[in-house]
Amino acid sequence: MSTITTTSSSSIIRCCEDTIGRRQRVLAFDDTRFPEKNLVLTPASVEVNKPPRPRRIILVRHGQSEGNVDEGAYTRVADPRIRLTEKGGREAEQCGLRIREMIEKDGADDWKVYFYVSPYQRTIETLRGLGTAFQRSRIAGVREEPRLREQDFGNFQDQEQMKIQKAVRVQYGRFFYRFPNGESAADVYDRITGFRETLRTDIDIGRFQPPGEQSPNMNLVIVSHGLTLRVFLMRWYKWTVEQFERLNNMANGNMIVMQTGQGGRYSLLVHHTKQQMMDFGLTEEMLVDQEWQKTAKPGELNYESLTAGPSFFTHFDDEINGRLG
């Protein structure tokens, strides 16, 4: 087992010997730089010490890119280096203004924003456009997150082959079809699952603000790509593959807002109307669940429904039809 020796200024961690008898290197760190490691989590203190949840998680699709107006751009420029158009830059700035206006309507004085961003050029440029709407004091931080990158369609793309592959994807199914030398939406789901766990941990420990300065008026902004954001929502709300395949891309430079309801959970129907969510692709069953999310508390489960998607147990329908026949 590892042994920990504590001094007045730092903690020394000595790891076990490796399998061939060599002593592992010694790591030292300053406790004062990682205050969350000093939290004593007893049953009585967990709720007291737990930081407030951010008020919103705002999903932003990058502004119009060179690839959005000319798919041939992907044959000349690597996907991660595709830039925004002038229109895309304006869309990003306008989206930032809409986010600030939405937050200011809360009437709070201590609000801030924290950004997670895909490392692609068009999302970084979108982040910079969004940032023009905020003073330095309002930006709590930024984290570049590679797991938020676009679905990988392969390296330099052959335009004619991509048309063929996208047509085949429609026949095969948008979620499971994997592009040659690239990814399927199911692959994106796997990496977004890892990001979601990181995000939940960041929320639980209040990583966005120092201890003593934590506020419920924090707003998280995730700057990413159309499919990646749809997969994020699918993973967060546990939507089925069939439900995912009904969803539509949000427009460039637009946002979808997950906002805390009365109980503290995130719902799409706190900020958006039912019609807006139906246009995005939510079914009636999904809307019912979002209504429940508006008042439910974190950790609660919706026991009123076996599933938020299509029935997996068709024999129940047969029983009902038999009684009605």
Automatic annotation (TrEMBL):
<dbReference type="InterPro" id="IPR001345">
    <property type="entry name" value="PG/BPGM_mutase_AS"/>
</dbReference>
<feature type="active site" description="Proton donor/acceptor">
    <location>
        <position position="150"/>
    </location>
</feature>
<protein>
    <recommendedName>
        <fullName>Phosphoglycerate mutase-like protein AT74H</fullName>
    </recommendedName>
</protein>
<feature type="binding site">
    <location>
        <position position="122"/>
    </location>
    <ligand>
        <name>substrate</name>
    </ligand>
</feature>
<feature type="binding site">
    <location>
        <begin position="61"/>
        <end position="68"/>
    </location>
    <ligand>
        <name>substrate</name>
    </ligand>
</feature>
<feature type="active site" description="Tele-phosphohistidine intermediate">
    <location>
        <position position="62"/>
    </location>
</feature>
<dbReference type="InterPro" id="IPR013078">
    <property type="entry name" value="His_Pase_superF_clade-1"/>
</dbReference>
<dbReference type="InterPro" id="IPR052765">
    <property type="entry name" value="PGM-Related"/>
</dbReference>
<dbReference type="Pfam" id="PF00300">
    <property type="entry name" value="His_Phos_1"/>
</dbReference>
<dbReference type="InterPro" id="IPR029033">
    <property type="entry name" value="His_PPase_superfam"/>
</dbReference>
<dbReference type="GO" id="GO:0003824">
    <property type="term" value="F:catalytic activity"/>
</dbReference>
